[in-house]
Amino acid sequence: APDIDGAKVEAHLEELGRIAAANGGNRAHGTPGYRASLDYVKGELDAAGYNTRIQQFNSGGKPGFNLIADLPDRGDHDKVVMLGAHLDSVDIGPGINDNGSGSAGILEVALTYAASGAKGDKAIRFGWWGAEEDGLVGSKAYVTSLSAAERESITAYLNFDMIGSPNPGYFVYNDDAKGDFITEALEEGFAAEDVPSEGVSLRGRSDHAPFMAVGIPSGGTATLSLVPVMSQAQAAKWNGKAGQPFDPCYHRNCDTVENISTAALDTHTDVAAYAAWKLTGVHAAGGS
Ligand code: PHE
Ligand code: CA
Ligand code: ZN
Ligand code: ZN
Ligand code: ZN
């Protein structure tokens, strides 16, 4: 798999920061900042040759939107590997680590995959979810909308939520036994980056949960776990700050571009790409 250009991921994240600043300081469900975020991501994907689709749903009396992107003519579309991230923020802040980071990371994976000409045995699909912060509403709406055949065609779902924490961990989800092969691919990706990873259960607290609930194998990475602070052992292996939160700006208005470890963001994005190339079975251009 290629080395994703971290500067390009940062550029997407900075754009999401500008969008929040221009729209009342957030990108929450039901706000113009959310819609502008979606339009930005969609524009990038359309220009790269993706077939994009906006799926509308309702949450709290307001319309919400998911963005689904398929890359035509690459792999068997009855066997799909899907990467996803929630694009909405909380109301209180711009949501740059949560979850501009995952959104920007998978966007650059998508653009790199298209540009490289990578062709796998399986097709690749990307999803950006709305209203995660209202209770995984967008990802639930997507999974619910799938026919049985469409559900079965999704061979793996990989989720990326909070991949740029300033005191970062390098966690791989182990919530889903069916997703063990995904976990292994992600662990291999961290090993290729020379970064020690750690398994963690997120107890379904992000958008992989609706997929897991219908038997679609799921996995993902994150820079934090559900415990409030980094342990001594974790700080030692990751050169982090023991006893400090992974992200002190979690769900706060200081979750800006200054709240990001660009090194962690790049590493997690490279690992996402590693798994995307490996799980789709790339064997043509871009498969180095
Ligand atoms: N999904 C939760 C949120 O968006 C937090 C979370 C992210 C928990 C990543 C664990 C891992 O607020
Ligand atoms: Ca990189
Ligand atoms: Zn959140
Ligand atoms: Zn989140
Ligand atoms: Zn092959």
From TrEMBL:
Question: Which family does the entry's similarity section mention?
Answer: Belongs to the peptidase M28 family. M28A subfamily.
- According to UniProt, the name of this protein is P/Homo B domain-containing protein
Tell me the stretch of the parent sequence this chain holds: 545 to 832 of 947
State the species of origin.
Salinispora arenicola
